[in-house]
Each structure stands twice: as structure tokens, then as C-alpha cells.
Write a structure and sequence with these properties.
Order of helices and strands of chain C: HEHEHEHEEHEHEEEEHEHEHEHEEEH
Number of helices of chain B: 18
CATH architecture of the largest domain in chain B: 3-Layer(aba) Sandwich
Strand order of the largest sheet of chain B: 6-9-10-3-11-12
Largest interface: A-C, 64 and 60 residues
Number of strands of chain C: 16
CATH topology of the largest domain in chain C: Rossmann fold
Helix content of chain C: 40-55%
Shape of chain B: globular
Number of domains of chain B: 2
Radius of gyration of chain B: 24 Å
Chains: A mainly alpha (329), B alpha/beta (502), C alpha/beta (366)
Radius of gyration of chain C: 23 Å
Strand content of chain B: 25-35%
CATH architecture of the largest domain in chain C: 3-Layer(aba) Sandwich
Number of domains of chain C: 2
CATH superfamily of the largest domain in chain C: Response regulator
Oligomer: heterotrimer
Number of strands of chain B: 24
CATH class of the largest domain in chain C: Alpha Beta
Structural class of chain C: alpha/beta
Structural class of chain B: alpha/beta
Number of helices of chain C: 11
Distance between the termini of chain C: 42 Å
CATH topology of the largest domain in chain B: Rossmann fold
CATH superfamily of the largest domain in chain B: P-loop containing nucleotide triphosphate hydrolases
Distance between the termini of chain B: 55 Å
Largest sheet of chain B: 6 strands, mixed
């Protein structure tokens, strides 16, 4: 519980700082943009956090996001209806997770290594199957190989999942709503079912779980499948939300945002700790800092350092206060 | 006549470089408590792990109630009613006691969703905890917050919750207090009455005598003999285990005793420690024993002297000189060494070699201009492996693959090579077999005789009474009293340890 | 717990205080005398854009404008778009964008052009987006200027190789297309074939010129690959005379030069470049590189802010028509101004131009 209080404090403080110092941030449209960005990072944070809970790591998330976005575009361009392409790409994500999971559990390879290789492989795959993809590229009426008839279904998907109206104006933070729904489902499994117990037990003490008769390998594989499937969902949302996706840049280094969100939200990299609500809150941090930096027109060169320092400072204070609480007990 | 509960014929198991089991056979009747004893490395743990599905045997047959069995995972064994309470604690410390009790076989509803049925679990947990003598309220506690003894009881309770035919207990009492051990005996009697068979592994021979119906002795991966109920005694077991008589189990050849105080502790308090301060002496030529229940603060006191816990007040004097210890390095520089309770956690770098571990604290002396001097290092390894009779193929062997007794010898070796002035031993023979125990006792006796101050913390009553010249008993963070012969008896120690007076 | 929240809030506020230099004002439209708020977003972070930023800063001072300038971390529309959205919501009077993917970004830019004054620079979007104008050279024309440089250094024909970041973005297609347009006139399209002396090297003939591999070699952006690409080509052309290496993105000419140095071919091969990388300019002055065609990003920044400031004050006279931004051609010795295709083109000396750039950069502190 103390771990949650820390992140609640951090998120509230960041929002307070943003809203008090930057009047233009109070605009509802702006806050919805921030929420949607939180949803975007939050979805992959859930997956990354789950993998971290079972004591693993997934560095291929960003590449899977990029590859799924490109694959989504390429599949539709080749004539597959958007509503069919969506489950197809999810299946691709699940397969990636299955491969990661099997390599880690069956061949006993280190998760760090397997997913690091995956990071290169899926980025490379994205570049092989397509360069730059966009909705216009799929549906452009001026292009004879395109499918203008897909324009409406794609826009429908965008309205439902991202929350943008027909013209691309954000009317409700769909990705954030999606994040909450997914977090509820994940939270249910994590905190209320036997699966969650297994994940926590495996992360903390794999042998204990094994000797208790838990099929540790299968649970590990399941978790990697969930993580990669969520990443491919995030990739499709990116495609729907963004004007265009570059195969070499889409989603790149997102795995780090996801891991950061998970750790800020109370997942220990040693495994066995973390809550669904914490993951959501952890993912909310970065977009707020980002928005603050955008709105205040900071110098481009200083931005990464400002973001990094804010997060570091938050982490240090959180840790110090937690240690003090622990000492007082 | 019904078939035996368990029959093992000619089991063999080969590990890389070690033949762990070389044709072991045993039978176990329903409702029987069979003790399996032997030195560490004799193959007991391997045999138990084969029965529990952790390892697979290379050869041999195994039947359970007449049915041939072939377990590939611990899950298979549990499903067949064979449950192992492991020597090294196997609990998920981040989960609650109740979660651990039912891990892997949760009561759930909702079909494939497997939603946890928390109310049933709570009631069932209360019942199991009561059976092992723990309060029902422990069900919601985080396992990580429990003292080691209670963790062990939770493991036992977990096994009780299974529909077991065979329960395997591997050193179940190593972290239990006397009273908890008594509770365990009661539990075992109950299981017997229910027809559950128990395979019981212990180094504490008195304990074996108390619980076992029959004893099977293993030596070097083979059957070394069997003792019926009436034959079970200390002499017989030791003879079969080591293949010879042990003249002196607790030697006192070198100590003269009663010399001047060489290590003095005055008014010692450490940060976040108890309010009362501790003062005591260790004299030349004696072994100072320290007794107390788990959690009485003995280990903490040792850690404070060793510099792990920051001191709040007090003075330490060694051989007439003031000791200023702020961190373990200061203690090591002064010749104060700690052989820790958990050697795998604090005593050894388990995945590294014997040589690596022996060299580790001595690198400053082995260092030359161009890194470590190989010849000197090899000499040090050979000397201590030989002197302590560490059973290892070479100094390059991974230390984690040695038996417990040999691992412990490596821990001694790395400190002895530096020439100790004060040696703090925390549970010096925990998980160590009889043969190695005797060797370690002889070593400690020799060290004490040669003027090293020896301060031995132990929960093993036989060891305490057998080895100590004087005993301090701790209770709730303070030194409750001092005992020397002839007042030094088990009853007197227990009275002080539980808060009574001398 | 309360204490903990106070701590966190305090530090965050402190941080906000340090960072928030210019406080935001919510004024979408300005009257004549007020300071309009103008935003410029580039496509990525690059020294090229530092020059643009310097120009924008100067214009902001000259025309009394509050300027937001941002170089996104990566060449990625998905990173650029949220920045634009946030600024538009915040209420700027005008925004200048270096478009990354004209097709993909078309819809969003159309929506944004309805809310604020939008101009494109460096890379254009479709006119149908409603952008007011485009500040930037015509890449095909600039490519032709590179082609003319090649003709000058290899008047009797020879072997050429082109190096570029990618072959898919609009400026890349136009730039390399322009070079080949110039070389093939008056001859027909590129003819596939093998090198006259190196039979294992295939490519295409453009008039008297043989293009190695028949298209520009891509490297995906600044980095090691740009150097290895050049080195590989030089290795394959070992012993061939009359080679001209053409670097079409800003980092390519220095990368080619480095490869040539490694093979001790400096001076033996000709190098022609694009953009005003300081290394390129220095090497032109020493004669190691023949020449480069520059876009003058300082002017991009200056013009964009100037135009948007005027529009914000109700003056639309400064808007540029198509192809009204001239490129310049830099050589060691320079030359007189010429009018080419209706544009007045300058031919400054490398040393003079390098000095101008350094002055530009120094004129406004970063």
C-alpha cells in the first residue's frame, strides 16, 4: 500500500505543478491529449509490468509496437479489411510473445538477451515489410493500389479506440479509457485469481512456485504473450492515432518508457511486486512532464535532461520517504 | 499383506562428476516414520528429491502402494500424494501465509477464470495453522515478516493441507525452537495415526531417536545398514554413518580454560537495537557459547560486533587494545571474523569455485604487481583444502556443488587463512553432517586452545552443551544469564531463554 | 504521508519554476501592436536546424514576436504531431512545420490550418491542406544545380555514385531525380549496363555518366553506415579514374571525405555535396570537395517567422509564391550571380559563406 501512496503523491504533485504554472494546460482539450498519451504508454506499461512481476524483462516492446503499426498498415494496403487486420496483428503480437516465452523457458536463455535480440529483429522486420505507413497511404483515392473503401472502417476504429472524430479532433480520451478497462481486467487476474498468485510467487521465488506444483514455464510464456499482444495493440493505436509511422522510428525506445512506468508504479525489478493501479499511475507520470515541457516552449536540447531529472528526483524522494516509513515501523 | 507404501529398488543417479546414488533400495510401510540418515553427500537429499519428482532417477524402480510411478515434475508427485518439505525454505515471501499454504492448488470458482475463493481459504488456513501450533491470525501475515521458525512451520502446514500418502521432511527442525519442535513431534504422531508415511531426514540424532520407527543409513550413495526401533541409538547410527567409531565427538584436547579475558564487550548498544546494553567477556582457552530462542537477538549482537550494524554506544577490547569497528572491513583488519548463520547468503559466493572463495578475503595478501600471484594463491588453496579435509575434486570446483559440511569448511578456511583473533560462529554446524561436524568441532577446539577467542552462537542444544565452557543465554535482546558447569544443563538454558531466572 | 505529498509537490513546483521561462498567454489573435506568438517545429534534431533556429530567433527579435522553436528528438511524425497539437491547443497565432510525411500528415495539417495560420518549410505538404505558403527550395531545381556541378568537374563523363539517407521521402526523390535529370539531358533515360572497365559493377548509364548500382545508396540517417557505404563503393571502383561521389544529405559529403581519406584517394576523386555542413564548407575551401548546393536554413527560419508575424498582424503581402526561395551554389572560388529558371542564384566563395554561417550562429545565443 505504501508503494501506491508514493506514486499517487508524485502524480498529484506533477498535475498540481502543471496546472498551477501553466494556464494553457488547463484547457480540456489539452488534458485529454495528455490522457490519451497516458493511455498509449499505459497499455504497454501493463505488459512490461506483468513481465517484471514474474521476474523477467521485455526489451522488444518498442520494436513490436513499431512492427505491429507497420504490419497493420501493410496488411490493410494488401486488401485485408481493417476489422480483420486488427485480430490478425494481435495474433502476430501473441506469436512474438510465444516465441520470446518459449526461448526463455524451453531453451533457458536469458530474457534480457532474447528480448534484446527481438528488439533488433522486429525493428528490422518493420523496415523490411514497409517504410512509412499511414492511413492516407492505405486509403488514398489518388493511388490505384490503395483501398479508399477502408477509409470509413479505419475512421470508425479510430473513433472507438482513440476517441478522435471524423476530422481527427479528439473528442474523448479513448486510449485512456481503454487503458482503464485493460487495467481492470489485468488487476482482476493479478489480484483475484490463482494466476496472479502464481505470477507473484514465480517472480519472488521461482523454486517455491515450482515445488508447489505450479507449471512455472507455462505461466512465464502466458505473461510474455500478454505483454507482446498489448504491445501490438499499442502499435495499431499508434497507427490509428498518428498521421504516419516510420518503420525505423515508430515506437522506438518505448520499452524504456514502459519499464519506467512499471517501476515508478511500484514494480520491483527483482520481481514479485506491483499492482495494477500502480502501473496505471506510473504510466501517467511521463506524459504530464512531457506536456509541461511542450507548453513552456523549452529549448529542444534541454528537454531530455529535464524529463530525466524530474523522474529521477521523483524516484529519489519516493525512495527516501519509503525508507523513512519503513524505519518508523 | 498390503504392498509397501513406497518401495525403491536399486535407484541410481549420476550428476556431472558425482555419482550421487549408486543402487539404493528402501521400503516404507503405511503409517511408518522412516528416518534416513547419513553424512552430507551420502545421497539422502538426492534420494528424497527423486521421490518428490524434483530429479529423475537414471535407473531403478519405484512403486507407490504397489503402482509403478514415474514423476517428471514436483506437480506430478504432489498429485500422487507425495509431498516434500524442503530443507531450504521454499516460500514466496512476498505473499501472505494463506497464499503460500494453498499455492499451486488454490480453491477457485469461475471455471477457467480461476477466481480465488478467499473465505474458504481463510477457514482452511486457520485449521492448518492451528495444527502446527501457530495462531490463526498468522494467515494474513506476509511470510517475509515471519521469523525463520514460523516459516518452517508454515511449510509443514502447507504439506498437511495436501492429501498426502508420503510426507518427506528434510531437516524440518533446523530453525525451530524446542517448543516448536515438540509441536512438530505431535503433528508427526497425528499423521502416523492417519496412516500417512513419513520420510524423515535429520542430523540431530536425538531427534531421530524420538520420532523414527526405523532408520535407514546411507553412505556414499549406497545402503550402509538399517536399525529397528529398539536398535536406534547414537552409537549405532554414528557407526553406520561414518563407517567407524567416533571416539570423541566433542573434543576438548587443546583447551585449558579459565584464562584471562581476551575479548571484552562493555555496554554495547547498536542502532535500532534493544534498549538494554550488553557486556560480556571471552576468555583465553575457552569457547563461549551463546544460547537463546530464534529472534532473541544473538545474531544481531554478533553483526553489531562485526560492523554490519552501526554501534550506538559501548566499547570493545581485543587483547588489551580498543577496537573501533564501523564496518566489516574494520573488523576483518582487526582479526575479528564472522562465520555467518546463512552461509549460502552471507558466507560464500555460491556460483564461484572453492578457490575463488578461499582467496576472496585474502586477496590483499596475494596481490602482486601484476594481479594475483598465482603460485601463492594455489599454495593457499592446497594448504587449506588439505588442512580442513575439504572433499572437493579440485580448487576449481564450484562451491555450491559441495555438500553442506564441505561448504562450511570452505567458510572456515577463508577466515583461518587470515589468522583470526576473535572468531564469531553463528550456528557453526547447521546443515552439516556428523562426520564433518566432528572435524569442525576438533578444529574449533584447536583454535580456542591456540589463543583465539571463540564465541559460538548455536540453537543446537547438544552442540551447546557439548562444546561450550561457558554459556550466555539471551532473551528478548538482553543477556538473561550466564551458566557454567555444573549449572550448565538443558533445563537451565531453556529456563533462561524463555524468560525465567536462574 | 501528508508530509510526503508536500515534499513531492514542493520539488515539482520548484522545478516548474526553473523551467517555465516564458509564461503562456492565451491570446489567439493579436492587434497590431501586440506580440504575436509564433511556433516553429522542425523534423528532427540536426545542426542544419540550429541555423534555422538562429534565423527564427533573429526574426523574432526584429519583428517583436514570442517564439516557440522545437527540434523533435527523432525524424518521426508520431513524435512531431503531439507537439504541434499541444501548441495549437495552447493558442499560437501561427505555426511553421517541416513536414515529415506529406501524405500521412495531410489530414491533420488540414484540420490545424483551419485553426491557426500554417506554413510549411523545408518540406511541403499538399496545397489542399490550406497552408498559406511554402518556405523552401525546390529540391528538383537544387538537384539540377548539383548535376551541373558534376558536369563541371567531370566534363568528359565518368563514374558517379550518389549517397543519401533514403530513397522514399519527397526531398530525397526530387534531389536525386534532379541530379539525373541534369546529367541525362540531352540523352535518353538511364540505360542499365555494367561498368566500362569494372565488369562486376553494374549500374545505369546517364549520357556520359555511369551511376554505380543505378540508384542512390541509402544509409538511414547520420552514422557509421554513411561512411561504410562510401568506402564500399570506393573499394569496388579500385583503380578507376574520373570518379565523382555525390552526397545528397547534409552528413554525406563529410562521410564520403572520411572514406576517401581512409583509402588515400583525396584529390584523386571528385566530391560534390549538398547542404552547408561546416565540415563540407571547410573542405571546399581546401579543395578536397568541389562544391555544394545549400538551402540556407537560416533564411528558412527568418522567413517563416517574418511571414507568420506579418499574417498575425493582418498583412498577407509577404506570402511567397511557388519556387520563390533560391538555393545557393558554394565553390572554392565562387562566381557572379546568375538567373536560372527565373530565380536569382548566388555563387558565394566557401570561406565567405562559412563566415556568414558562423556569424549567423553567433548572432543569437542558443
Amino acid at each position: 500500500m505504501t508503494r501506491i501512496l508514493g506514486i499517487v503523491g508524485l502524480v498529484s504533485a506533477l498535475y498540481a505543478a502543471l496546472l498551477l504554472t501553466t494556464p494553457s494546460a488547463r484547457d480540456v482539450g489539452n488534458l485529454m491529449d495528455v490522457a490519451n498519451l497516458q493511455g498509449q504508454y499505459g497499455i504497454i506499461t501493463l505488459g512490461a509490468a506483468l513481465v517484471i512481476i514474474v521476474g523477467g524483462i521485455d526489451l522488444s516492446i518498442g520494436s513490436v509496437v513499431g512492427c505491429s503499426a507497420v504490419l497493420f498498415g501493410v496488411t490493410m494496403k494488401s486488401g485485408v479489411h481493417p476489422y480483420a487486420a486488427l485480430p490478425l496483428v494481435l495474433a502476430f503480437g501473441a506469436t512474438v510473445g510465444l516465441v520470446n516465452g518459449l526461448l526463455i523457458t524451453r531453451l533457458k536463455l536469458q530474457a534480457f538477451l532474447v528480448t534484446l535480440c527481438g528488439m533488433f529483429v522486429y525493428r528490422g522486420l518493420a523496415r523490411l515489410i514497409g517504410g512509412t505507413v499511414s492511413r492516407t497511404w492505405v486509403t488514398d483515392p489518388r493511388d490505384p493500389t490503395a483501398h479508399p473503401e477502408f477509409d470509413t472502417p479505419i475512421r470508425n476504429l479510430r473513433s472507438g479506440l482513440v476517441g478522435k472524430d471524423f476530422l481527427g479532433e479528439l473528442v474523448f480520451p479513448g486510449e485512456f479509457v481503454l487503458l482503464i478497462l485493460l487495467a481492470l481486467v489485468l488487476g482482476f487476474f493479478l489480484h483475484r485469481t490463482a494466476y496472479g498468485r502464481y505470477w507473484y510467487a514465480i517472480g519472488h521465488n521461482e523454486l517455491a512456485a515450482k515445488y508447489a506444483g505450479v507449471n512455472v514455464d507455462r505461466q512465464r510464456v502466458i505473461v510474455y504473450v500478454i505483454c507482446s499482444t498489448l504491445a501490438s495493440l499499442a502499435g495499431m493505436l499508434l497507427f490509428l492515432n498518428m498521421p504516419s509511422i516510420q518503420a525505423d522510428a515508430g515506437g522506438s525506445s518505448w520499452e524504456l518508457f514502459a519499464i519506467l512506468g512499471a517501476v515508478l508504479g511500484g514494480c520491483s525489478l527483482r520481481g514479485g511486486e506491483g499492482t495494477a493501479i500502480g502501473m496505471v499511475l506510473g504510466a501517467m507520470v511521463m506524459p504530464v512532464v512531457d506536456n509541461f515541457v511542450n507548453l513552456n516552449g523549452m529549448k529542444s536540447d534541454g528537454i531530455p535532461a529535464v524529463i530525466g531529472l524530474t523522474l529521477l528526483l521523483g524516484t529519489i524522494i519516493d525512495e527516501l520517504l519509503r525508507r523513512r516509513n519503513a524505519a518508523r515501523k | 499383506m498390503p504392498p509397501p507404501r513406497l518401495a525403491i529398488e536399486n535407484a541410481r543417479k549420476q550428476f556431472p562428476g558425482v555419482l550421487a546414488l549408486d543402487g539404493v533400495s528402501l521400503t516404507l510401510a503405511p503409517g511408518e516414520v522412516l528416518a534416513v540418515v547419513g553424512e552430507n553427500g551420502a545421497g539422502k537429499s538426492t534420494l528424497m528429491k527423486i521421490v518428490a519428482g524434483v530429479y529423475r532417477r537414471d535407473e531403478g524402480t519405484m512403486t507407490l502402494d504397489g503402482e509403478p510411478i514415474e514423476f517428471t515434475t514436483p506437480g506430478d508427485a504432489i498429485a500422487a500424494g507425495v509431498s516434500l518439505i524442503h530443507q531450504e525454505l521454499n516460500l514466496a515471501e512476498n505473499l501472505s501465509v494463506a497464499d503460500n499454504l494453498f499455492l499451486g492448488r488454490e480453491r477457485t470458482y469461475g471455471g477457467p477464470l480461476r477466481i480465488l475463493d478467499k473465505s474458504t481459504a481463510k477457514a482452511r488456513a486457520a485449521e492448518l495453522l492451528t495444527r502446527v501450533g501457530l495462531p490463526a491470525s498468522r494467515a494474513t501475515a506476509r511470510v517475509g515478516a515471519l521469523p525463520p521458525g514460523e516459516k518452517q512451520l508454515v511449510e509443514i502446514a502447507r504439506a498437511l493441507g495436501l492429501k498426502v500418502r508420503i510426507l518427506i521432511m528434510d531437516e524440518p527442525t533446523s530453525s525451530l525452537t524446542q517448543r516448536e519442535t515438540e509441536t512438530l513431534y505431535g503433528v508427526i504422531d497425528g499423521l502416523k495415526a492417519d496412516g500417512v508415511s513419513v520420510l524423515y531426514i535429520s542430523h540431530r540424532l536425538a531427534e531421530v531417536k524420538r520420532v523414527a520407527d526405523r532408520v535407514v543409513v546411507l553412505r556414499d550413495g549406497r545402503n550402509a545398514g538399517e536399525l529397528a526401533k529398539h536398535e536406534i541409538d547414537h552409537e549405532n547410527m554414528v557407526r553406520l554413518m561414518v563407517g567407524r567409531d567416533l571416539k570423541q565427538f566433542y573434543p576438548k584436547d587443546h583447551r585449558k580454560g579459565g584464562g584471562e579475558p581476551i575479548f571484552q564487550v562493555r555496554d554495547l548498544r547498536y542502532r535500532n537495537g534493544p534498549a538494554t546494553s550488553a557486556s560480556f567477556d571471552v576468555r583465553a582457552g575457552e569457547i563461549l557459547g551463546m544460547a537463546g530462542l530464534v529472534g532473541a537477538g544473538r545474531t544481531e549482537l554478533a553483526e553489531a560486533v562485526f560492523g554490519v550494524r552501526p554501534l550506538a554506544s559501548g566499547t570493545l577490547t581485543l587483547n588489551g587494545q580498543d577496537l573501533r569497528i564501523r564496518r566489516p572491513q574494520d573488523a576483518i583488519d582487526a582479526g575479528v571474523f564472522l562465520v555467518p548463520e546463512d552461509r549460502r547468503l552471507h558466507g560464500l559466493v555460491v556460483p564461484e569455485s572453492v578457490g575463488f572463495n578461499l582467496s576472496l578475503p585474502n586477496l590483499d595478501r596475494l596481490g602482486g604487481l601484476f594481479g594475483t600471484r598465482r603460485a601463492a594463491e594455489a599454495e593457499l588453496h592446497a594448504a587449506w583444502i588439505d588442512k580442513l579435509r575439504v572433499k572437493t575434486p579440485s580448487a576449481r570446483q564450484t562451491v555450491g556443488l559441495l555438500s553442506g559440511g564441505n561448504q562450511q569448511k570452505v567458510v572456515y578456511g577463508k577466515w583461518l587463512a587470515r589468522g583470526p583473533k576473535l572468531l564469531i560462529l553463528d550456528e557453526p554446524t547447521r546443515g552439516v553432517d556428523v562426520g564433518a561436524k566432528a572435524e569442525i568441532y576438533a578444529l574449533i577446539d584447536e583454535l580456542a586452545g591456540n589463543g583465539v577467542a571463540v564465541w559460538m552462537i548455536t540453537s543446537d542444544m547438544e552442540e551447546l552443551l557439548g562444546m561450550s565452557d561457558r554459556v550466555l543465554v539471551m532473551h528478548e535482546g538482553r543477556i538473561a544469564g550466564e551458566l557454567a558447569k555444573p549449572q550448565l544443563t538443558e533445563e537451565a538454558v531453556m529456563r533462561l531463554a524463555t524468560g525465567g531466572s536462574t | 504521508m501528508a508530509l510526503r505529498l508536500v515534499y513531492l509537490a514542493f520539488t515539482c513546483l520548484a522545478l516548474a519554476g526553473c523551467g517555465g521561462g516564458n509564461s503562456a498567454s492565451n491570446a489567439p489573435n493579436v492587434a497590431g501592436g501586440d506580440r504575436p506568438k509564433i511556433a516553429v517545429v522542425t523534423n528532427c534534431t540536426d545542426p542544419f536546424w540550429d541555423l534555422c533556429e538562429a534565423g527564427a530567433n533573429k526574426a523574432a527579435k526584429d519583428h517583436n514576436v514570442e517564439l516557440l522553436f522545437r527540434q523533435p528528438e527523432k525524424l518521426d511524425a508520431a513524435i512531431q504531431m503531439p507537439i504541434i497539437e499541444a501548441w495549437v491547443k495552447q493558442g499560437v497565432n501561427g505555426i511553421a512545420v517541416s513536414v515529415i510525411d506529406p501524405k500521412g500528415q495531410e489530414e491533420d495539417l488540414t484540420r490545424i490550418a483551419k485553426k491557426v495560420s500554417l506554413i510549411t518549410m523545408d518540406n511541403d505538404a499538399a496545397e489542399s491542406t490550406g497552408r498559406l505558403c511554402y518556405v523552401g527550395v525546390d529540391n528538383r531545381e537544387a538537384g539540377r544545380a548539383v548535376g551541373r556541378l558534376v558536369k563541371k568537374v567531370l566534363p568528359n563523363g565518368g563514374t558517379i555514385a550518389m549517397f543519401i539517407g533514403n530513397n522514399s521521402s519527397a526531398n530525397a526523390i526530387d534531389r536525386s531525380g534532379g541530379v539525373l535529370d541534369e546529367l541525362k539531358t540531352p540523352d535518353a533515360d538511364g540505360k542499365p549496363g555494367t561498368h566500362p572497365t569494372k565488369k562486376d559493377v553494374s549500374g545505369k548509364y546517364y549520357g556520359k555518366y555511369f551511376l554505380v548500382d543505378g540508384e542512390a545508396k541509402t544509409d538511414g540517417g547520420p552514422g557509421e553506415k554513411a561512411v561504410t557505404n562510401a568506402r564500399d563503393v570506393l573499394g569496388r571502383l579500385d583503380g578507376v579514374s574520373d570518379i565523382c561521389m555525390i552526397g545528397l544529405y547534409a552528413y554525406n559529403p563529410p562521410a564520403i571525405l572520411e572514406a576517401a581519406r581512409a583509402k588515400s584517394l583525396v584529390g584523386k576523386i571528385k566530391i560534390v555535396g549538398f547542404d552547408e555542413n561546416l565540415e563540407t564548407l571547410k573542405s571546399i575551401a581546401t579543395g578536397e570537395i568541389e562544391g555544394t548546393v545549400v538551402q540556407d536554413p537560416f533564411n528558412y527560419g527568418y522567413k517563416s517567422v517574418e511571414i507568420l508575424a506579418a499574417v498575425a498582424r493582418g498583412d498577407k503581402s509577404k506570402l511567397l509564391g511557388k519556387g520563390q526561395t533560391p538555393y545557393q551554389v558554394i565553390t572554392k572560388d565562387g562566381g557572379p550571380d546568375q538567373t536560372i529558371n527565373g530565380l536569382l542564384i548566388k555563387f558565394p566563395k566557401a570561406v565567405d559563406f562559412e563566415k556568414k554561417i558562423r556569424d549567423d550562429l553567433a548572432s543569437v545565443k542558443k
